[in-house]
């Protein structure tokens, strides 16, 4: 059963939130963070991308860079740009994209639940990325950025959340660049806090939607602290890490598409002929074609879009991994025809989040940088949960959640 608890959040004052809040550390590079933080000493990038406080080209993994993160975190608190709440609360964080709003509960999730699999994953993690985030958690003694969880939607939780979201939010702003809306409320009523905790305790599992490396790092550091403390009791703050939990029926997974640099020695005509072995291929002309359903793909080649529909028998409906469109396209197109066997390491392939639109695929092919593009129908939340429940792992670059959580709205300290 899922264990959660309220916590004393560390947050910006209301009038500073837009100056502090930032995009997550892993959706932009150092140069982009440097540009976005220019002229803003309060930007959270000084904590989550502290290399921006050093000369251009400084390695973000140097010890002095991690130390700078901790120094800046202390500075933000000393200057009152981040202030800790007096009591333990839950929080509501709402995001609005394209007129649709999703409401997340900000909670502390259990390190033990992560270790025992009550918190379920659907992606593999890389040890180097885990270690980077572990160092960041260690030096700050805090979860600076939350992870993104899903849970099985429940009416009673929705009703409690709705009671608070009818009131004026503590924070309400439109983020620059993407134009998404962000709102924030505090759940401070003890009866509501107790009931939310009870309702989560009845859930058999929580699901990592986005932030597998942050989840792993937070849990591993918590486990380290447990082992290092001879007086460990189990209720210390390091036994928990910060997560924003959204009802599964409110979340949107968008497409995660592929672009490839060459046709593996084939001509356009030869490639299309080989595709016809396993797909129904239809020429859709020069207008952008979007995949219409599962097992339907959009191929952009030359200056034409093609519909590819996987033929019956080319996938197994009873195999939770084999039935995924990322698996079908990887096995029958990228591997079998183009010789791309490892999506994680092959330099001939790149990946484009659907938030950029299919026009981005066309642009990268038309520029000559890439030879063709493949657009996929998005994975469903049901597929994600089924795979996590079965203990399986999705292939690389399968899910893209949008909108991303804004960092800097709240922080969890491990003491």
From TrEMBL:
Source superkingdom: Bacteria
Pfam families in UniProt: DUF1015
InterPro entries from the UniProt entry: UCP033563
Protein's name according to its UniProt entry: DUF1015 domain-containing protein
Organism: Porphyromonas catoniae F0037
């Amino acid at each position: 059963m899922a264990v959660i608890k309220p916590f004393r959040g560390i947050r910006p004052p209301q009038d500073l939130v837009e100056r502090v809040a930032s995009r997550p550390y892993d959706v932009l590079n150092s140069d982009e963070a440097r540009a976005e933080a220019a002229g803003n000493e309060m930007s959270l990038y000084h904590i989550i991308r502290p290399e921006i406080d050093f000369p251009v080209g400084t390695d973000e993994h140097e010890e002095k860079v991690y130390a700078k993160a901790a120094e800046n975190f202390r500075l933000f608190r000393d200057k009152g740009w981040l202030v800790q709440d007096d009591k333990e609360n839950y929080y509501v964080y709402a995001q609005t994209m394209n007129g649709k709003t999703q409401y997340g509960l900000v909670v502390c999730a259990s390190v033990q639940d992560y270790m025992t699999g009550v918190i379920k994953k659907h992606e593999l993690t890389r040890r180097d990325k885990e270690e980077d985030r572990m160092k960041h958690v260690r030096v700050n003694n805090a979860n600076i950025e939350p992870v993104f969880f899903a849970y099985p939607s429940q009416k009673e939780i929705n009703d409690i959340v709705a009671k608070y979201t009818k009131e004026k939010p503590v924070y309400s702003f439109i983020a620059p660049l993407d134009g998404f809306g962000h709102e924030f409320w505090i759940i401070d009523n003890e009866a509501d806090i107790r009931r939310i905790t009870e309702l989560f305790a009845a859930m058999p599992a929580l699901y990592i939607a986005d932030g597998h490396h942050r989840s792993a790092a937070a849990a591993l550091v918590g486990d380290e602290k447990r082992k290092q403390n001879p007086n460990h009791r189990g209720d210390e703050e390091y036994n928990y890490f910060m997560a924003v939990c959204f009802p599964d029926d409110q979340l949107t997974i968008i497409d995660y598409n592929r672009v490839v640099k060459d046709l593996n020695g084939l001509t356009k005509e030869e490639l299309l002929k080989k595709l016809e072995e396993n797909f129904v291929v239809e020429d859709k002309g020069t207008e952008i074609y979007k995949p219409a359903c599962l097992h339907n793909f959009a191929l952009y080649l030359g200056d034409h879009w093609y519909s590819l529909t996987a033929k019956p028998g080319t996938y197994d409906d009873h195999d939770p991994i084999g039935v995924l469109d990322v698996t079908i396209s990887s096995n029958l197109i990228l591997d079998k025809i183009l010789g791309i066997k490892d999506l994680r390491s092959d330099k001939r392939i790149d990946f484009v989040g659907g938030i950029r639109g299919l026009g981005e695929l066309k642009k990268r092919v038309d520029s000559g940088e890439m030879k063709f593009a493949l657009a996929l129908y998005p994975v469903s939340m049901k597929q994600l949960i089924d795979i996590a429940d079965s203990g399986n792992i999705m292939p690389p670059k399968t899910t893209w959640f949008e909108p991303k959580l804004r960092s800097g709205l709240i922080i969890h300290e491990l003491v």
